[in-house]
Each structure stands twice: as C-alpha cells, then as structure tokens.
Write a structure and sequence with these properties.
Chain lengths: 107, 113
C-alpha cells in the first residue's frame, strides 16, 4: 500500500516568515496533487505536479516534485494569515491523501 | 466559476435510519466521487462513478452504501442503515478527465446519534 507521509504535522509561524512542508513516500508517483482545506470545507486543489524535478509557482507558493517522483515540497514565502489551513498532498484517481500539515499563521 | 454543490450542509439522524446525501457536480464533468473525513482523521476515498456505474470502491463502501445518478445533474450517496461510526464529513468531487484533478464540494456533516 502506498502511503504519503507529511511533515511537519503542525506548524505555527508569524506573518512574514517563510516555511516549507513536505510530502514523502517510498513509492514512485505518476503525479501528485496539493490541496488546501479550511475547517468545515472541502479540499481545494492548488496544483498538480507531474514531471520529476518540476517546479510550479502559485503566487507566493512554490511546489516542487522530487527528481525521483517520490516526494514533493511546498514552500510559502512571506506567509500571510490567509494561508492558514490544512495542506494535503494526494495521489491517484481514487485520491489517497496524506494526513496533512496544519498551518497557523499569526499576525 | 463552476463549483460542486452539496446538500444538506448538516444532517442529524438516528442510528439505523437511512440518509441520502446529494451532490450537484460541475456540469461538464463525467467522473464523480464520494469521500469521507471522520473528525480529526484524513480524507478517505469511498467510491468513484463513471458512465452510470461504479468504477472503483474502497473497503469502507460496503453493502450499506449505494450511489446513484438519478438525473442529468444530481449524484447521491445513500447510507441504508446508519451506524454511529458513519458520523463524518462527506465530500463529493467531480472531474472532467477521470484523473487526479478533482474538484470538491463543501461537504455534508453527518451526525448519527
């Protein structure tokens, strides 16, 4: 069974700081998705990474897919309070989610 | 921007009762999914549906669960006889390609008493 390990589990930072969260597995993926989920709402797709070594940017968010396509990272530059949420990585058509990184950005 | 909608937003039911959760997927999408999230746990896949039939289901999706596309717009999840452990957020999702890019609804919070 392929499993996604996300780290850290929780992260609390102040506005303006940078952060990186990770999604790791021992398996190779054809693609990986990153979602953000706010309390009481459904996951919202942020990005899909497909190619090993690929880097995608979404405003202050930078997503990287590992060269071997086994891991991915999400880097947020100059975090804002609106970035607060649960960041999930997932793979597969029947999406298999990690447990997520819960991010809290305080003023 | 098109979005997936779900009704009701909250449902409280007694154990043993039947519930039907409703979803309206994005209009040009052909692939539909149900997921659930028990409080404090990760989002879990239940079932996928394409061309009027189930294409894949998880171990969670046992005989108590069924899905239906009763018309051209709705997609429903029925739980025949609810159990306490069915209490969770249930999310519907849809996709135009059947791949990993899926768009989620806001969820229905089900509480079984």
């Amino acid at each position: 069974t392929q499993l996604l390990e996300q780290s850290p589990q929780f992260l609390s930072i102040q506005e303006g700081e940078n952060l990186t969260v990770y999604c790791n597995s021992s398996s190779v993926f054809s693609s990986l998705q990153w979602y953000r989920q706010e309390p009481g709402e459904g996951p919202v797709l942020l990005v899909t990474v497909v190619t090993g070594g690929e880097v995608k940017k979404l405003k202050r968010l930078t997503f990287q897919f590992g060269d071997a396509r086994k891991d991915s990272s999400l880097h947020i530059t100059a975090a804002q309070t609106g970035d607060t949420g649960l960041y999930l990585c997932a793979f597969g058509g029947a999406l298999n989610f990690g447990k997520g990184t819960s991010l809290l950005v305080t003023p | 921007e098109p979005e997936v909608t779900q009704t009701p937003s909250h449902q409280v039911t007694q154990m043993g009762q039947e519930v039907i959760l409703r979803c309206v997927p994005i209009s040009n999408h052909l692939y539909f999914y149900w997921y659930r999230q028990i409080l404090g746990q990760k989002v879990e896949f239940l079932v996928s549906f394409y061309n009027n039939e189930i294409s894949e289901k998880s171990e969670i999706f046992d005989d108590q669960f069924s899905v239906e596309r009763p018309d051209g717009s709705n997609f429903t999840l029925k739980i025949r006889s609810t159990k306490l452990e069915d209490s969770a957020m249930y999310f519907c999702a849809s996709s135009d390609t059947g791949g990993e890019t899926q768009y989620f609804g806001p969820g229905t919070r089900l509480l079984v008493l």
